[in-house]
Amino acid sequence: MSDHRRINFLLEQDKPATRYCRNPRRTNWEVFDKELSQSIGLWIGRVKTPADIKRELTGVNSALINAYEKACPLHKVSGRHRVPW
Questions:
Q1: Model pTM?
Q2: 3-state secondary structure the chain
Q3: Is 67 exposed, middle or buried (0-12, 13-18, 19+ CB in 10 A)?
Q4: Residues in a beta bridge with 1
């Protein structure tokens, strides 16, 4: 008889966190144009002071970001790149 005993153990790996990203090549430019024209519309504003410039730029920036997020939605990325062969 041996003085050594067998130790059984099981290794478990946590699931990797799901990643989401955007694919700019799949952007729907018609949706982007529609959303941007709805949010900005006819841009008629008076810009006289630096505060006015900052306010208008914030509005244009948020309109661009919102239009892009609607035209290019997030999709889930799997952690593996599977080769087709």
A1: 0.66
A2: CCCCCCCCCCCCCCCCCCEEECCHHHCCHHHHHHHHHHHHCCCCCCCCCHHHHHHHHHHHHHHHHHHHHHHCCCEEECCCCCCCC
A3: buried
A4: none
* Residue tagged 């059984």 (tokens): 8
Q: What is the pLDDT along the chain (85 residues), one digit of tens a residue?
A: 567 788 888 888 877 778 889 989 999 999 999 999 998 876 766 788 998 889 888 988 999 999 999 999 998 887 666 656 6
Residue ranges of domains in the chain: 19-74
User: CB atoms < 10 A from the CB of 28, how many?
Assistant: 13
Asked if residues 71 and 32 have their Cβ atoms less than 8 Å apart, the reply is yes
